Each structure stands twice: as structure tokens, then as C-alpha cells.
Structure to design on (411 residues):
């Protein structure tokens, strides 16, 4: 019998060894993600905080906090150019100067809070990249040239879209500074500059979500290809499914492992996605509040409503790659690919009695197990649920524009 002291010592050694292995795997995963980003976008990968080194992440965090402090201090310092712009804006839309001061102060204070939330979001994204679930997927797919090239293409395309959208935001603000005919148009952009950094962080997170979705999708596609490879074989003049005894049980165990991997991925990215959705919602509500405050200027108010609508829809569209994973696992929609539809195709194929019993167990497992990406407060992310939210926004938009443009006042 082993003495208790030796047993406890062995357990401590094994636990420490396991922790060291996990830490090395997480560091390797972060290194591989950083390598993917460098391969996709070159030296610009340093602009993606969640895929950079600890020093670069610290620089991003300090920059976010500095911009937040600048947003809080700007109304209190109240430079001359800001005062002149606020007075001109108040006269243009018919507000009192004190009310216009209050609007700007509240807006930049909310932007400061959003900068803080963005720094939290980047920390959560960095933790997700170093998670065990992502380390496992990257390790399994790193040697696969097809998957590797797909991940690089996803990163490159997402980064280009993000940079284009950020440039569009800056151009919109620059145009607003010209159209409003303020005495200091360039200072208008400087005054609202705290909004640019949260916008860039949100666009970074869109790239993050798309990469995580591509990693999980590669696992689901691998299982789909394995299930699709089953064919017919002719034995003594009769067609049978090309499946030996035990194969359906093997696929059942593989699907159970796939569910565990998807659950681990969901747990890894859920905190980041939840904060991302809250930041998007906060930005949309801020724009709607500014539209309400500028109600005396119908065109300005309508512009802010459209920006709020665009912001809300962008948060929903960012979730689409995650919805594709859930749909590929279990959708029953006609004409769409899914594991459930593919497995059901074999129900009419001739099988031996024992193989057919295993197939029925496999189908029962598929029909009773929910598969996909699960986010708390959202449930399983599906295209149907996201489409419902988009349609709600589309229905509310005409009413909001009618209120801001004052269409009900016209004869």
C-alpha cells in the first residue's frame, strides 16, 4: 500500500505538470494566432490587440484609458474652439447653449465609459485566444494547408472590411463637420475623436468573432465530410450502406466530442461577445439620445437615427458566422446543409439489422442534442433568431424617421 504522503506528493507533481502543459498550450495558441495575423496582414497585425504580445496589449489598454480620460476632461477644460462650436451648434438647431453643453458633456462621458468597456472587451478577447478550447482547435488544424489558408483569408478579408468601415466613420464625421458650418470644423472631429477608438475596437472584435467562427466551423465541416463519405456497396447483387458494425457508434462518439468542443468554444468567447453586444447597444442608445436632443433639427436627428440603426444592425451581422455553425449542425430548413439533414438521408438505405439499430441510436442522439454556439442571454445563435432582430429594427426604423423628420406635421 502506498503511503498517503507519497500519494499526495505524486498528485501535486502531476497537477503541477498538467498546469504547466496547459500554460504552454495556451502560449502556443496565442503565438499561432499572432502568426496567422502576421501572415494575413503583415506588420499591421500589431493593430489587433487581441492577437498581439502582452506589451502591445498594454499599449492598447493605456491608449483606451487615455482617450477616456481626455473625453471626461474635455468639457471641463472647455477650450475656446469647443465653446464657439457649441454656441454655433445651439444656434443652428434652436437649442439653448446650456442644453447643448449638457448634450455634449453627457455624450463624451458615455464615450469615456464605452472606452473603458472596450478595454475590458480586449482583455476578455485575449483570454479567449489563450483558452484551452482554441489551443486544441489550432493545434489540430495547423498542419492542414486548406484550413490554414482559409483562416488567413478570413483574417485578411475581415481586416480590410474593418479598415474600410473605420475610414467611412471618419469620413462621415468629416462631412458632418463641413455640413454643419461650424466655425472650427476640424475641431469638431477632434471633439468627437473619443468615438473613433471604440469604433475601431468593435471592428477588431468583428475580426475576432469571424476567426473564432472559422475555427469552429472547420471542426463541424470535418465531421460533415466524414458523415458524407458513407456510400453504397454491392454485396451479392444487393445494395447496402457502406458501413460496418460499430461505425455509427463511432460517429456518435465523434459527435459527442464535437458537442464538447463547441461548448468549450462557446464558454471561451461568451464573455467577449456579451460585452461586445453591450457596447453596440450602448452606442446605439447614445446615438438615439443625441437624436432626441437634436429634435429641432429634423435632418440632424434623422442622421443620428440612421447611424443608430446601422450600429445595431452591424452588431447583429457580426454574429452571423456563429449562426452558420449552429445551422450546419442542426437546421431543418429546406435546401440548407446540416448534419441532421445529411444523416436523415441514410434512413432509407438498406442496412443489416445490427447496423440499423446503431443508426437509430445515432439519429436519436442527433435529434435530442442541441448543437451549435450558445451565448448566455441569447441562447443558440441561429440565422432565424438574428433575422427576427433585424426585422424588428427594420419595422421600427420608419417610425423613428417619421418622428424625427416630423412627417406627421405635414398636411
Amino acid at each position: 500500500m502506498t503511503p498517503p504522503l507519497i500519494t499526495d506528493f505524486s498528485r501535486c507533481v502531476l497537477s503541477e505538470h498538467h498546469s504547466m502543459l496547459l500554460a504552454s498550450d495556451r502560449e502556443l495558441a496565442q503565438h499561432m494566432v499572432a502568426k496567422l495575423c502576421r501572415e494575413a496582414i503583415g506588420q499591421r497585425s500589431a493593430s489587433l490587440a487581441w492577437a498581439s504580445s502582452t506589451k502591445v496589449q498594454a499599449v492598447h489598454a493605456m491608449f483606451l484609458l487615455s482617450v477616456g480620460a481626455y473625453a471626461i476632461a474635455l468639457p471641463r477644460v472647455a477650450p475656446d474652439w469647443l465653446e464657439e462650436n457649441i454656441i454655433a451648434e445651439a444656434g443652428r438647431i434652436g437649442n439653448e447653449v446650456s442644453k447643448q453643453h449638457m448634450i455634449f458633456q453627457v455624450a463624451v462621458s458615455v464615450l469615456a465609459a464605452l472606452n473603458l468597456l472596450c478595454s475590458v472587451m480586449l482583455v476578455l478577447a485575449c483570454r479567449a485566444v489563450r483558452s484551452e478550447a482554441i489551443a486544441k482547435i489550432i493545434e489540430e488544424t495547423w498542419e492542414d494547408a486548406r484550413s490554414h489558408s482559409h483562416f488567413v483569408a478570413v483574417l485578411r478579408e475581415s481586416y480590410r472590411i474593418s479598415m474600410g468601415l473605420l475610414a467611412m466613420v471618419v469620413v462621415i464625421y468629416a462631412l458632418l463637420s463641413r455640413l454643419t458650418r461650424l466655425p472650427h470644423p476640424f475641431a469638431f472631429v477632434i471633439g468627437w475623436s473619443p468615438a473613433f477608438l471604440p469604433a475601431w475596437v468593435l471592428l477588431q472584435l468583428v475580426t475576432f468573432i469571424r476567426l473564432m467562427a472559422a475555427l469552429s466551423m472547420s471542426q463541424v465541416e470535418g465531421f460533415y465530410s466524414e458523415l458524407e463519405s458513407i456510400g453504397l456497396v454491392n454485396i451479392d447483387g444487393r445494395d447496402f450502406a457502406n458501413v460496418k458494425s460499430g461505425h455509427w457508434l463511432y460517429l456518435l462518439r465523434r459527435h459527442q466530442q464535437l458537442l464538447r468542443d463547441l461548448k468549450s468554444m462557446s464558454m471561451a468567447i461568451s464573455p467577449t461577445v456579451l460585452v461586445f453586444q453591450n457596447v453596440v447597444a450602448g452606442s446605439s442608445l447614445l446615438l438615439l439620445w443625441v437624436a432626441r436632443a437634436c429634435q429641432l433639427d429634423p435632418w440632424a436627428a434623422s442622421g443620428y437615427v440612421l447611424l443608430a440603426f446601422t450600429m445595431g444592425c452591424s452588431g447583429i451581422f457580426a454574429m452571423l458566422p456563429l449562426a452558420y455553425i449552429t445551422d450546419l449542425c442542426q437546421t431543418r430548413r429546406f435546401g440548407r446543409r446540416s448534419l441532421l439533414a445529411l444523416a436523415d438521408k441514410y434512413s432509407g438505405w438498406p442496412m443489416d439489422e445490427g447496423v440499423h439499430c446503431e443508426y437509430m441510436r445515432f439519429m436519436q442522439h442527433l435529434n435530442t442534442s442541441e448543437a451549435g454556439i450558445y451565448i448566455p442571454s441569447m441562447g443558440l445563435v441561429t440565422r432565424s433568431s438574428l433575422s427576427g432582430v433585424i426585422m424588428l429594427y427594420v419595422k421600427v426604423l420608419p417610425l423613428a424617421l417619421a418622428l424625427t423628420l416630423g412627417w406627421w406635421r405635414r398636411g
